[in-house]
Prior knowledge:
The protein is an alpha+beta fold. 18% of the residues lie in helices and 27% in strands. The strands form three sheets. It has a four-stranded antiparallel β-sheet, with helices on one face. A four-stranded mixed β-sheet has the order 5-6-7-8. Helix 3 links the parallel strand 6 (97-100) and strand 7 (126-134). The radius of gyration is 25 Å and the shape is flat. The relative contact order is 0.10.
Amino acid sequence: MIHEKxxxxxxxxxEESESVRKKLISLSALDKSRKxxxxxxxxxxxxxxxxxxxxxxxxDQANPEYYLPEKTVFNDLDIPDSEKKLLPRGWQILGDxxxxxxxxxLIDRKAEIGKSLLSYYPGCKTVLLDMGISGQMRQPDRxxxxxxxxxxxxxxxxxxxxxxxxxxxxxxxxNLAEKKRMGKLGKDETVVxxxxxxxxxxxxxxxxxxxxx
Length: 213
């Protein structure tokens, strides 16, 4: 005999579902692996196995709908567990270019890692390995490890388009609040941006603030 797995859900009216869902989240009671199900004028919100309540109607779900397991960037990499622990947890995306830094013990895996990143981000065309900054001009030291040979891209940020060569130019995606604030200054003024770099502040000002010059 096959026994169906019975799971629990809170049943509420549709118009109450969002407020109840938020409350269940605050109680750490929402089962995020299952989908919310609509049945007539009711919504069934999945809850964890041990959740008990006198406030809401608790029902059994004989046939719950599950979300597909989340695909991780490197889940297709066939490498030892000792190396998986060294895989990067973050990277930068400029336009359609991915820039990643690797632990020195993973350098021999750079091509595989680059291909995994491109597979996860099909809208990107090239992966660059970042090896720091060098020289008196503080230029990035980078290498193509996957994708196309071209490293020019157009990056969009705060309504501005920055055309750049990611192999040659540093671009910091941080400090967004300050960039937006600067974009509101300079109306009808002549703006001089000393050591402007790629124009983190002057370009948003030119686009948004309507300066005189």
